[in-house]
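Lab notes, practical 5.
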Amino acid sequence: MERRVVVTGIGVVSALGRNACEFWDALTKGECGIRPIKQLDMTDVKFKNGAEVPGWNPQEHFEGKQADFLDRFAQFAVVAAREAVKDSGVEWNPTLRERTGIVTGSCVGGKESEDIGYQDLYLRKRGRLSPLTVPRVMANAGASHISIEMGVTGPAFTLSTACSSGNHAIGQAYRMVRSGDVEMALAGGSEAPLTFGHLKAWEALRVVAPDTCRPFSADRLGMVLGEAGAILVLEPREAAIARGAKIYGEIVGFGMSSDAHHLTQSASDGAARAIQGALRDADLSPDQIGYINAHGTATLLNDPMEVVAIRISLGKHAERVPISSTKSMHGHTLGAAGAIEAIATLLALRNCTLPPTANFTKPDPHCDLDVIPNTARKVEVEYALSNSFAFGGLNAVLAFRAPRK
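Output from the prediction step:
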């Protein structure tokens, strides 16, 4: 018999704050975490802004030389996991550690360490790299360090499906808990993509806005990159209730698809199949959905594609569903996007407040749905979706239920 799966702990490191409380407070106020990037010299990069974690100091979180073993993206993962586990109130024992899984998502892994290595090798002509380069660069470093620190010995792995990585990670963890493969899971994603080489690569794609992120707005100019770590604690509903844990919400469905279409241009029918898959898995009808946290990158092609996908999936009900893109505030965090947006969706359901699409200026006739412009909306919603549609045509959608039922 399949088990109901709930979220009992959350942890966030983002441009909107270094914990979940700060993150949610900024979201509800419509605050934008996009600002000039300070961690590197941006002189030779055409765009100057990003959603950077403010004032990040590894020494505040890791003792001695421990931080030397972790790239910035892995640091975010570990710190978010610490908050999520503490928030959940879980009490570890040997059996639970063995029956807990860790599933993380990361699109690009340790870019900071990779950039430093390339500069040492090609620019400074050094013949030897740091022996820590490989363990810092590997995309699974976040999952591995969480496992080591928490003493979790169950299955631990990392998924890399571009900006659907976080949703795919949570979805796989959800299925593992639901089926009984594990008794608990730590799932989410982390990313630290604000390095010179990586920013120059995005510059070449010509999809990054020179100023800020305006999803669904007629004058949008593109996405804005961000960095973040976000981890959720998943467990069976019965176990959570038995130990008196607070419940943020329930994961009720997960849908996946691939477009088989184009590496960088998503297809609305592929995205729609993922939405429909999540509805089918959750046994929900379209008219039961009360909110959608959109992928909403603010690129010229993505936003109208997603609107079409929502219309295909929800039919006439699409006209009545409020949707918002929180990327307008925390930026596009790539492999962490699904995770940070899952937390935003859960908090919206729990607190009866839908976060806005910030920076909205004027409507686009091709994005003519209710996008909650600029101001959060107080409304009680029972079911919500969180969309992720990635480069490579890889789609993942999660369905959530409010904790009141």
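Observations recorded by the TA: The first helix runs from residue 20 to 29. The chain has two domains: 5-242, 254-401.
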